[in-house]
Amino acid sequence: MTDSPLAFLQHRLSAPSKTLGEPGPDEAQLKTLLELAVRVPDHGRLTPWRFIRIAGAQRAAFGRRLAALMLARDPAADPAKVDKERHRYDHAPLVLAVVATLTPGHKIPEQEQLLSAGLAAYNLLLGARAMGFGAQWLTGFAAYDAEVARWFALGETERIVAFVHIGTPREAAVERARPDPLARLSDLALPD
Length: 192
Hints:
Elements: H1 5-10, E1 20-21, H2 27-37, E2 49-55, H3 57-73, H4 79-87, E3 94-101, H5 110-130, E4 134-138, H6 146-151, E5 158-169
Antiparallel strand pairs: 1-5, 2-3, 3-5, 4-5
């Protein structure tokens, strides 16, 4: 970890989930991570997020169910893709599903509520790294699937925005090429 908050953010990396192992956060560390996750902009104080823990034997069970679901829908599915889903949750000792709990028709637009849930997921990544863990935000088809939503007992206005995998990195994360931020900047030019 780096010394200053700015340097910490300048060197933020995701740790690939398949490189994460034991130990994961203990209960006190998990509580701290969740406290960090909820310190995000939340216009209207709607708390438009909640978290579902996937840990222990539930990780492998979830992967097996996802693989079976893929095969039920497409018996000719690529075996490598099926196997990837079967084992996606095997590595990190803790996976937190971040669920956006939207309030339609509220004065706070649903987009802002959804973004707040995304920020909660991002704070989990930052918090995990600050505690010395590695973390990765993944989705995959499971985040968008109606049957998976039923398994998670999601309400009609809820959706999974992230599966945040957290554990101890077994190898260093590799830096990737980043875009030139100034090339992504433009100035407002109002029409006459």
